[in-house]
């Protein structure tokens, strides 16, 4: 059976769990211009971040990437991660357990 949820109905900010308590962990991230998430990690996870709308600066360790609507970034959750909205932004983030983590 499939699970289907409209992203627009998820109102928690900045994070809304699309499918609570399900793997892979899937989050809708909504940030206002200038808002950022402090540096953090997701050990043992591979991450895909898809920008739905807006523009984000994604800090990964010492590297910085500017992402706009329709950009997709894939990276290792062991890195220090900090997204910051350059303009009001919405992204979909999938955090999958790495196969080598069991």
TrEMBL record:
Q: Which domain of life is it from?
A: Archaea
InterPro entries recorded: Cupin_2, RmlC-like_jellyroll, RmlC_Cupin_sf
- UniProt region (Disordered), positions on chain: 1-23
Every copy of the Cupin type-2 domain together lies at 29-89
Q: What is this protein called?
A: Cupin domain-containing protein
- This protein's species is Natronomonas aquatica
Its taxonomic path starts at: Archaea, Methanobacteriati, Methanobacteriota, Stenosarchaea group, Halobacteria
């Amino acid at each position: 059976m499939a699970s289907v949820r409209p992203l627009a109905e998820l109102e928690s900010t900045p994070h809304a769990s699309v499918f609570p308590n399900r793997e892979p962990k899937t989050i809708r991230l909504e940030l206002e211009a200038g808002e950022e998430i402090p540096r953090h990690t997701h050990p043992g996870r591979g991450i895909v971040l898809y920008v739905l709308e807006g523009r984000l600066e994604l800090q990964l360790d010492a590297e910085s990437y500017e992402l706009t609507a329709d950009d997709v970034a894939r990276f290792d959750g062991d890195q220090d991660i900090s997204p910051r909205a350059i303009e009001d932004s919405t992204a979909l983030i999938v955090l999958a357990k790495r196969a080598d983590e069991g």
